[in-house]
Design a protein that fits this description.
With 208 residues, the chain is mainly α. Helix content is 75%, strand content 0%. Helix 1 crosses helix 6. The protein folds into two domains: 55 residues, Orthogonal Bundle (Arc Repressor Mutant, subunit A), CATH 1.10.10; 147 residues, Tetracycline Repressor, domain 2, CATH 1.10.357.10. It has ten helices and no strands.
Amino acid sequence: MPGKIPRTRIQKKNHETILEAALDVFSRHGFRGATLDQIALESGLSKPNLLYYFPSKVSIHRALLERLMANWLDPLHKLDPQGNPVEEILAYVLRKLDMAREFPRESRLFANEIVQGAPNIADQIEGELKSLVDEKSKVIRGWSEAGRIAKIDPYHLIFSIWATTQHYADFDAQVCKIIETDGASHFDDARVFLNRMFRQVLTPDTLV
């Protein structure tokens, strides 16, 4: 079976332009609120031109989610079973916080998808994401049972890391209004706070 015809430089540029515009639109309006007309306007391309690259709004959304999932899983992949347990988990916390700081639109895109019941990404959550979380939970449970970290449920630990780090992207407007900032210094403060909080949570009782 012949392979796909390689895209030209212009086609690659337009493809990326559409995805970048769609990321803005979907992160602001969610999947249901976004329209192809909005994405075309944001991209500076005509709607027929957009449809040349992507046949539907769903296909654009799926492309973004697939790219996002690959990036989202990378920090958890880096959790090293051979490393120092507390430092490995704290490094994961801070990598997730850095992602919230650097990729807020992607975080909101993912959050919107989950709130809607994950219609376009359920297979990846039930497949690749679940497998990775199961694998790393087994590692964390082993550390806990060996007394290298506190007795802790690994799944709820991972969920709490997601909640406390991604919050700064998904609820940025709320955070900034409450602490009265329009900059990014709150991420530095969050980094200090989360490092201290999770270190205390993870430290075995015998070492407290």
